Amino acid sequence: EIPMGITKFVAESESDDLKKLVTSSLLASFILGIMALFFLQLLSHRISDLFGITESLSYFKLISYNFPLFMINSTMQCILNGLSKFKSYSVIASFRKISIPILTFIFILLGYDLKGTFFAIIISSFLTFVILFYNIKEYLRVISINDFGINFLEMSKFSSQLYFANSLSQITTRLDIFCIGILLDKEKVGIYS
């Protein structure tokens, strides 16, 4: 996966190349996240039909808005890791893991039910994005399309070895939630996930 490759490349980069690499990485993550957003928006009806949960269509569409933030946040966390900013990395990772259940609890108390879980994930991702961006903004610069292409191809070539394994891992990690969604009502699935 590209974010794991980013950690390696950031750790090995020189100062000027580092800024090009960081900017290229974030741009690539944004593009891939937007592609995932459109993919889920277009296929959310088919996905909900596939799992027999037709009432979940709005949830698939809602959570798809999190993909660009998720991709960029993963990349920025890998950049912090590659820069050996381990304290910032762990504080931000902890913030994200703590903010989701807290925000979920608040939204459920406000009467948002299962949609509150999705709102919590999206808001937590946005807050994490702001914190991460503040921590890496000094490593950004304007780059040429050529520099972006070269960096993207280099990262993709290295990271391509991890695509299949990571895809399987992500599917198996989340498959239980979909299976439980078929057997339980939506409130219990929201609490489980």
Protein traits:
193 residues, single chain, mainly alpha
Spell out the blueprint of helices and strands:
Elements: H1 2-12, H2 15-50, H3 57-64, H4 67-82, H5 86-109, H6 113-136, H7 145-183, H8 186-192
Helix pairs in contact: 1-2, 1-4, 1-7, 2-3, 2-4, 2-7, 4-5, 4-6, 5-6, 7-8
> What level of helicity do the residues show?
over 70%
Sketch the major β-sheet. Answer: none
If you compute it from the alpha carbons, what radius of gyration comes out, rounded to the nearest whole angstrom? 18 Å
Number of helices: 8
Instruction: Count every beta strand, where a strand is a DSSP E run of 2 or more residues.
Output: 0
Shape: globular
Tell me the β content.
Answer: under 5%
The secondary-structure element order is: HHHHHHHH
Description of the molecule:
- The protein has 193 residues and is mainly α.
- Helix content is 85%, strand content 0%.
- The protein has helices at residues 2-12, 15-50, 57-64, 67-82, 86-109, 113-136, 145-183, 186-192.
- It is globular.
- The mean pLDDT is 81.
Short synopsis of the structure:
The protein is mostly helical. The protein is 85% helix and 0% strand.
